[in-house]
Amino acid sequence: MDLYEAARQGNIEGIESAVEKGCDVNAAVKNGKPPLWFAVQSGHSDACKILIARGARVEGQGHSILELAVEGEHTEIVELLWPYCKVESQHRCLETAISLGFHGIADFLVGTQVFGYQHSQASDIELLMKDGFSRREIKAFQQWERFIFVRRSEKLNLHRIFFDYALLLATKADRNAGLRLVNLLLGGEKPLADANCMINIDKEIETPLTNAAEKGNLEILATLIERPNTRLTICGKYNWPAFLHLLASSDSIASEKGRAIARKLSKEGLPDSFLVDSKEARLETVFKNVLRLGDEALIKQVIDLVHGAAGIYILPLLIRANEAYGLRWILNDDIAHASKPPPILWVLLCNFFKRDPSSDALGTFIQVAKFLVEKAIWDRMILVCLNSRNFRFVKQFFYPLNEIPPREVAEETLAGFSQASTDQSLVREWAEKGFANAALWSAIRSGIWKTPAFESLLSCSNIDLDEPFPRKKSSETADANRLSPPLSGNSTSEKRKFPFRLPTGNSLRLPLEPGTPVLQDYQMQLMLLEQQNKRRLMMARNEQMEMTTEQGILAWTGGKSPLAWAATNRNVELMEALLRSSRVNVNSQDVQKRTPLVHAIAVGDRQTVETLLKFGDIDLNLRDNEGRTAIFHAAQGGDLHIIQLLTETQKVDFSIRDCNGENVQDIAVKKGRQDVVAALAT
């Protein structure tokens, strides 16, 4: 029998026979594991004894064989292996035994009295702390709590690092469940654990304070903060202090108690170097929570703490706090080399300047825009709008042409159109580059076409109301359109600085006059924009309308004109709004030469068909790419009511034949619809 198989089965005779034949008991052949590994894994203590007696090594076999025995709760094998193990490298075994609830094994290990490390060298303890522990599920805390509380009347001969580890687990147990264990470990004149301990958990440093903050355990946090020796600036996961971990939990700072604790945690300043870890997305969560739930004092504290370390994500906070200096810093330092900063940030910035057009920071923003336009990163229309102080109209240009901006931005575009229309060169360029077409579709998609501003948009002579979305690019406009999306990033990694200097002196401050309302609405605007984006994404997924291009036209529009799209979607009100403009062609044709009427017939909506037929200049005999007219599509659909609506107009030419040489009666006969044949004959 194979030695490995004999070990796995616990076959003593098989093991003896294989060894006598010269098999090496330490050869790691099968799956890279030696025979002893399989005997331990299967829990065969007698087989383990034979193998060890025959010279099987316990140490130096890769993953700890002792830990394997612990994980399998093979108590007898653990006791057998123990004398052959190096104690300093087996600290994980005790942690595993307690965390998994194998307290009989844990009692044996503690009883060896070697985990107190009384005789260990400092280098051994250093190695132990560097090696650290594995990350465990939260329920592991319950086993540590039970183990320690059951034996608290005894003197647990353990090194402090094990109590520190138990403290870490207790601080991140759900809903302050670890408070009792925290109080036990930190109570008395000589606490069992160190409130400021820093332990390596799967190559990440964790501390009790930052763990409690990350989990939002406010009761435990309050207990730790009240201890006079607790260092509030200590950093844990992500190299963050507890202050930021707490702010990343929206539930925590939604309560007054959470905000009060946050204020206490931030009372000691931290240099920026603590926060530079290149993962700004986590900081973005902090900023959003503070923007939505924090008061003015908390916002100021966050800005003071992370100023200079968070990149573009701090911009909404700076806007909310009305910090001209902060705005100048972020514009001068980070924007040019950022890779696609979210358009929402520029929208918020424009909202700020709309409220405070005299802000010193506006000059900086205009210079930034000028620089980005010169570098062909932004479209020049952004600069035109900023110079004319049209902060409504400019917002659309921060979004790519092949993307529908949020409803709020579409509303602002329509509201700013009347001011923009005074500059005909701007409006002409706006239309030529496709932004007018995008604005029209944005209003349609966002459902804001019932406003007077939408009618003024329809009256703009520079807009082709029969274009699909996005507009078909010509060779002359392709390059211009390519430049329209916001900040596509640099082709090199070199960080570029803007070629201007900031003004010096106290002019950077934004003094507020007595009675001037603080800018309260930015958190609401941010929420609305986020919600709108989420709704659009959900709609896109639900309706399979992903923003992918197909022959240069977005899939959800299907290459239709606005009128054809309204007909397809059975939106009679939108159709009527469009048709009130004499510039909308009721007979427009798409790339397949299908008219809005054909699209209405295709979806079988009688009210839509009736609405279109009210227009006297409608042509029922326009042929599509297959040579078929509206009556052909009606016959194929088989809706007798729609067929009747068409024939009653007395405008249908029944003599027309399609590209196959068939007339509409032939189509009806082939489909076997005698009722349709009769309706056509009538």
UniProtKB/TrEMBL annotation:
Tell me the ranges holding the ANK repeats: 31-63
Going by the UniProt record, its keywords in alphabetical order are: ANK repeat, Repeat
Q: Which Pfam families match?
A: Ank_2 (PF12796)
Q: Where is this region: Disordered?
A: 469-509
InterPro entries per UniProt: Ankyrin_rpt, Ankyrin_rpt-contain_sf
Q: Quote the protein name from its UniProt record.
A: Uncharacterized protein
Lineage from the top down? Eukaryota, Fungi, Dikarya, Ascomycota, Pezizomycotina
